[in-house]
Amino acid sequence: MNTIVVDTRGLEPPEPFERAMEALVDLKPGESMRLLLDRMPHPLLRMLDRDGYRHAAEVREDAVEILITRP
């Protein structure tokens, strides 16, 4: 499985959301993206749920990491 990494730590809103959305457009079915952020992206998580993406979040010491898989 192909996984891309998108590191948005240190960026001001709305740039993390915009970069995540740009990367999601390029994902093919079954591919994944590992998204690294400074905080939990609640609006993005709602959008992922709405659009059927699978996702799992982990709060780490240095980042919030979200693994997103395109359906």
UniProtKB/TrEMBL annotation:
User: Where is the DUF2249 domain positioned along the sequence?
Assistant: 6-70
Checking InterPro entries in the record gives: DUF2249, TusA-like_sf
What Pfam families does its record include? DUF2249 (PF10006)
What is the protein name stated in its UniProt record? Answer: DUF2249 domain-containing protein
What is the species of this protein? Thauera phenolivorans
